[in-house]
């Protein structure tokens, strides 16, 4: 039964042949198109060194009180993600109402369509480029990272928030309007309280992603653990790379677990 | 009998809410100190930021011809990376599914490994692979393969866990072995979902692959880095517009295909 319905949707009796040829063509195009530079001779050796570094991490780097050690940079990375997500959550609320469709009836509403397009644009604008632009404005450092996370996260948070607004229960809104509430009353006393748990849950989810991106923003000089990591890779000090990788893995796992627990309580 | 329920001390003075608020404000304050937030500096330098944006608003259209080839390379990198990652992910997904593997030790071990892989951000993997295989699109393909392996194996084993157990039991009763069960009872139920998730991961990889080149892992990112480091923001703008177009087209195509599949 499944095969039949599939064939119907993907065209004709010989539909599978068309798709097979198409796939063959796409993959041939891909494999011939990429210029494989080949793997450099030292690849095996470097891999062994990295794994060796992971098992013999540079423990002295964890804390040396200089403020440039693993612990303080991991905390700085978390601070970038936390502050960036906080600012972005606040900024996303107006975007959400801008992009949210008013019920289902009019599919192409200019306000919601323009809002959705703006969010797509923000989402696609590479975070690294944003970080570099902010570095030009406020100088290298974690503040530029905070700004980059705050602006970039709007793209995704705004989308999730606007979907929450679209799917919310309108009953409370209508009840307040019926009781004579103005637009501000409805927004503050009905709409926002209804969507707040979902907003918080999405923000926590985005925080998990922000922690990951904050840990690589340092590669362009926007603070956090990324700067020493890139430096360690370039200078081939693999035991340093090992300890930083361990730090990132532990940090991300801990944050994912924490945020997952909180989100379960919320929704 | 109309008695108002007694509120505890905690509830009466909203201690829980106040406590959370205090913790939250404290965290915000500590983070601001740690990241050296300086809104004054930000607003006084905002002009510079907008001057940069202004330079980006005048894209150098001559640059379009140069951008086409690396954009295609980016898509090819994403496709190959996603495919390799998926091929490796499939057996792992079957091994991690609760309804196929009964031993919690095997399942737990594999899930732990998958969780570890998923913690690593894409650019970090790119930096490592550039160090291992050298500069070029090969590093990008490897990065995306590992990145999509982590993501796809999780999506896949969650799908496998939601299937109907009827066909499995029927095949078991008929005396089929493990491979036969997977081939004839599991795969037909999940193949559409698998393809859909493959396309979804491909979308994400196209986005990710556009910046991998920044660290030397091939694709359009190489040119992004070149234009940024030579302060040619008009060229950067062309690249960003190209990325936007590609992402929108790929997302659209993949959405149409996925709607047909499900």
UniProtKB/TrEMBL annotation, chain A:
Pfam family example for this protein?
BPD_transp_1
An annotated Gene Ontology molecular function: ABC-type phosphonate transporter activity
ABC transmembrane type-1 domain mapped to chain residues: 74-259
- List membrane-spanning regions: 16-39, 73-97, 209-231, 237-258
Instruction: Give a Gene Ontology cellular component term annotated to this protein.
Output: plasma membrane
Where in the cell is the protein located? Answer: Cell envelope; Cell membrane; Membrane
Q: Which domain of life is it from?
A: Bacteria
The keyword Aminoacyl-tRNA synthetase is annotated on this UniProt entry? no
Alphabetical keyword list: Membrane, Transmembrane, Transmembrane helix, Transport
Annotated membrane topology is:
Multi-pass membrane protein
Q: Which InterPro entries match?
A: MetI-like (IPR000515), MetI-like_sf (IPR035906), PhnE/PtxC (IPR005769)
State the family named in the UniProt similarity comment for this chain.
Belongs to the binding-protein-dependent transport system permease family.
Q: What is this protein called?
A: ABC transmembrane type-1 domain-containing protein
Q: Which organism is it from?
A: Liquorilactobacillus satsumensis DSM 16230 = JCM 12392
TrEMBL record, chain B:
- Report the transmembrane regions from the record: 17-35, 77-101, 113-135, 181-200, 206-224, 236-257
Where it mainly occurs, coarsely classed, is membrane
Q: Which InterPro entries match?
A: MetI-like, MetI-like_sf, PhnE/PtxC
List the Gene Ontology MF annotations in alphabetical order.
ABC-type phosphonate transporter activity
Q: Where in the cell is it found?
A: Cell membrane
Q: How does it sit in the membrane?
A: Multi-pass membrane protein
Limits of the ABC transmembrane type-1 domain? 71-254
- Pfam families named among the record's database cross-references: BPD_transp_1
Cited PROSITE patterns: ABC_TM1
Task: Cite a GO CC annotation.
Answer: plasma membrane
Its domain of life reads Bacteria
Keyword Nucleotidyltransferase in annotation: no
Q: What are the alphabetically sorted keywords of the record?
A: Cell membrane, Membrane, Transmembrane, Transmembrane helix, Transport
Q: Which family does it belong to?
A: Belongs to the binding-protein-dependent transport system permease family.
This protein is called what?
Answer: ABC-type phosphate phosphonate transport system, permease component
């Amino acid at each position: 039964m499944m095969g039949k319905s599939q064939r119907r949707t993907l065209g004709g009796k010989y539909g599978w042949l068309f798709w097979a040829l198409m796939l063959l063509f796409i993959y041939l195009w891909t494999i011939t198109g990429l210029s494989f530079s080949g793997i450099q001779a030292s690849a095996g050796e470097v891999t062994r060194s990295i794994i060796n570094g992971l098992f013999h991490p540079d423990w002295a780097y964890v804390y040396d009180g200089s403020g440039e050690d693993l612990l303080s940079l991991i905390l700085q990375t978390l601070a970038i993600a936390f502050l960036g997500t906080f600012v972005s959550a606040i900024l996303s609320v107006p975007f959400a109402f801008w992009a949210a469709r008013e019920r289902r009836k009019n599919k192409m509403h200019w306000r919601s369509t323009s809002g959705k397009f703006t969010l797509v644009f923000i989402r696609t604008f590479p975070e690294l480029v944003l970080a570099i632009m902010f570095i030009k404005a406020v100088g290298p450092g974690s503040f530029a990272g905070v700004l980059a996370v705050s602006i970039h996260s709007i793209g995704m948070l705004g989308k999730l928030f606007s979907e929450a607004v679209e799917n919310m229960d309108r009953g409370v809104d209508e009840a307040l309007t019926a009781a004579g509430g103005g637009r501000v009353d409805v927004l503050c006393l009905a709409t926002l309280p209804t969507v707040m748990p979902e907003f918080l849950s999405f923000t926590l989810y985005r925080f998990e992603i922000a922690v990951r991106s904050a840990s690589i923003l340092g590669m362009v000089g926007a603070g956090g653990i990324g700067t020493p990591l890139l430096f360690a890779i370039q200078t081939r000090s693999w035991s340093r790379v090992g300890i930083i990788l361990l730090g990132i893995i532990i940090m991300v796992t801990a944050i994912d677990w924490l945020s997952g627990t909180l989100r379960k309580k919320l929704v | 009998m109309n008695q108002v329920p007694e509120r505890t001390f905690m509830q009466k003075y909203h201690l829980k809410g106040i406590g959370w608020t205090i913790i939250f404000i404290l965290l915000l304050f500590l983070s601001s100190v740690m990241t050296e937030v300086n809104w004054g500096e930000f607003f006084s330098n905002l002009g510079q930021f907008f001057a940069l944006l202004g330079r980006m608003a005048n894209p150098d259209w001559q640059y379009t011809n140069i951008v086409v080839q690396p954009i295609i390379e980016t898509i090819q990198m994403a496709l190959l990376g996603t495919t390799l990652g998926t091929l490796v992910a499939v057996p792992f997904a079957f091994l991690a599914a609760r309804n196929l593997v009964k031993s919690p030790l095997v399942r737990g071990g594999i899930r732990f490994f998958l969780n570890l892989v998923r913690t690593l951000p894409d650019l970090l993997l790119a930096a490592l692979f550039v160090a291992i295989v050298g500069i070029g699109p090969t590093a990008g393909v490897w990065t995306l393969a590992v990145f999509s392996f982590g993501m796809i194996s999780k999506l896949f084993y969650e799908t496998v866990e939601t299937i109907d157990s009827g066909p499995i039991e029927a095949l078991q009763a008929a005396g089929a072995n493990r491979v036969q069960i997977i081939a004839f009872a599991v795969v037909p139920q999940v193949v559409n979902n698998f393809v859909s998730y493959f396309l979804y991961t491909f979308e994400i990889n196209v986005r990710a692959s556009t910046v991998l080149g920044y660290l030397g892992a091939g694709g359009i990112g190489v040119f992004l880095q070149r234009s940024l480091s030579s302060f040619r923001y008009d060229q950067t703008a062309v690249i960003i517009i190209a990325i936007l177009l590609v992402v929108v087209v790929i997302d659209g195509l993949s959405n149409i295909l996925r709607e047909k599949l499900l």
